[in-house]
Design a protein that fits this description.
Transcription Regulator spoIIAA; 3 domains; Rossmann fold; globular
Length: 398
């Protein structure tokens, strides 16, 4: 496979030599290698300004991040062979950490496959491609999955927002086998069901697995409120672990219906309540009704998706956490989580402090949660380290 060359400007290779995978359009020597000469999804050999080869990248000349390194070997393109190898390497990490084949198998850049996410539900896999470079080798991805996993079914959940930025169409397609409406999985030893075809993203959010395990430890005999619950990832596991009552709040009727099905798996329908609506409004109503809980989990969607969203996003986090604190019994536990990469850990801690003081209470942070082992952090790419969860006991001021 003969590949064209992409030449970088002087000094533009420093970050790449340090381990990063992204190439920005303003780092390209467009006199030596005009971006308009390359096709969307095309693979190229990347050179520094002195002509030293740095590896192979795929391109999208229309984006600010115009290239992503997929191999440090300039003779190794992204093909079926490399995909099989990367899948096997990724699989070995998951098998080292989990005793059930339910996890995120491929986490993009961190597994050497930028623009690709693969979630596993026993022998069913959900694939999400978010870049033109990965879309160009989609057939090879499917072939590699057959080689490594022999799955009974494969669904492409190619309906993410990033695809629009890449100029790609959005779609969902079952390319192998049959996908049930609700697909079984096990997390922290708890049997659950995920909606792979109609649910959010790839159907389930495995990233908070470890923090959910901590809630499960605290749950026996408790009344639990799960805000932005989706299909009950936090709340139903707490129920299965002995919670007396679980209230899930979500804006989706369908998500709450699935949460109720998950409750039925554990003979817990009588201990389950689903509240449909906006979480902010639902919390206000619960405060007015003088409802109180022993544990409140506040795990909202990313209020801060870009740097320009930081100010408004911080206000939203503060508002919902303030309401969550108001709903706690004395000595109750707030689990304050964020999946916003731009929301720094110290900002989340300070928000908890400020809210507790505004309410004349004292917060004790006793546990910090991070993303699980199936979402490994690439040490050169801060964006891969995005998830955080703080466990705080909220006491009366004294």
């Amino acid at each position: 496979m003969l590949m064209q060359t992409l030449r970088l400007k002087p000094g533009a290779d420093k970050r790449l030599r340090g381990g990063h995978l992204w190439i920005y359009s303003n780092e390209v020597d467009t006199k030596m290698s005009p971006l308009k000469m390359f096709g969307i999804g095309q693979q190229v050999v990347v050179e520094n300004d002195r002509g030293k080869e740095l590896g192979v990248a795929y391109l999208n000349p229309n984006n600010l991040i115009c290239g992503r390194i997929i191999s440090r070997d300039s003779k190794q393109p992204l093909n079926r062979s490399l995909l099989v190898h990367r899948l096997k390497v990724a699989l070995s990490l998951r098998e080292m950490n989990y005793d059930q084949p339910c996890y995120r198998l491929i986490y993009g850049d961190s597994d050497g496959l930028p623009g690709l996410v693969i979630d596993r539900y026993f022998d069913v896999v959900a694939v999400q491609v978010s870049s033109a470079g990965m879309e160009a080798v989609l057939d090879d991805i499917i072939d590699a999955l057959h080689k490594v996993l022999q799955p009974s079914a494969i669904v492409l959940r190619n309906d993410g927002k990033m695809r629009e930025m890449e100029g790609l169409e959005t779609y969902t397609d079952v390319v192998h086998g049959e996908i049930p409406d609700l697909c079984p999985l096990v997390e922290n030893g708890v049997k659950l069901m995920a909606p792979l075809l109609k649910g959010q993203k790839t159907g389930w959010f495995y990233d908070h697995r470890d923090s959910r395990a901590k809630v499960n430890q605290l749950a026996p005999g408790k009344r639990v409120l799960d805000l932005f619950s989706y299909v009950g990832g936090w709340g139903i596991q707490a129920m299965a672990s002995g919670a007396d009552e679980v209230v899930c709040v979500d804006a989706s009727h369908y998500a709450l219906d699935v949460a109720r099905e998950n409750a039925r798996l554990h003979d817990g329908e009588s201990r389950f309540t689903g509240l449909h609506g906006d979480a902010f409004e639902a919390c206000k109503a619960l405060v007015d009704e003088r409802e109180r809980f022993d544990i409140v989990v506040c795990d909202p969607p990313a209020f801060i998706q870009k740097k320009k969203d930081i100010r408004n996003g911080e206000r939203a986090y503060a508002r919902i956490n303030n309401l969550a604190m108001r709903l706690l019994n004395k000595g109750g536990v707030l689990v304050s989580a964020s999946c916003s990469m731009h929301y720094q850990r110290e900002s989340l801690v300070d928000m908890i402090r400020a809210n507790s003081r505004e309410l004349d209470r004292t917060a004790q942070i006793f546990h910090v949660g991070y993303q699980g082992a199936d979402h490994p952090i690439h040490p050169a790419i801060p964006e891969t380290d995005y998830l955080k969860a703080y466990f705080a006991r909220i006491l009366a001021a004294g």
